[in-house]
Amino acid sequence: MFTLRFDMRAPSWAGPAADLYAAAIDMCAWAETRGGRPLPLHPLRGGVAPDVAWPYLERAAAAARANDQ
Question: Which domain of life is it from (predicted)?
Fold first, then answer.
């Protein structure tokens, strides 16, 4: 078994944030099919309003795509 953890900061050089976030959800779905546990997700330290909610939004999106969350 393995676990995925994501650093959800999206620097400008890394491409559009929406693409990075979508890739994280795809990776969670992929990991689940191979015995991985893509959760838990951790809140960003010192985040501001949109960042604070991100782990909960990602958890909901990952659970919607996965069979065993």
Answer: Bacteria
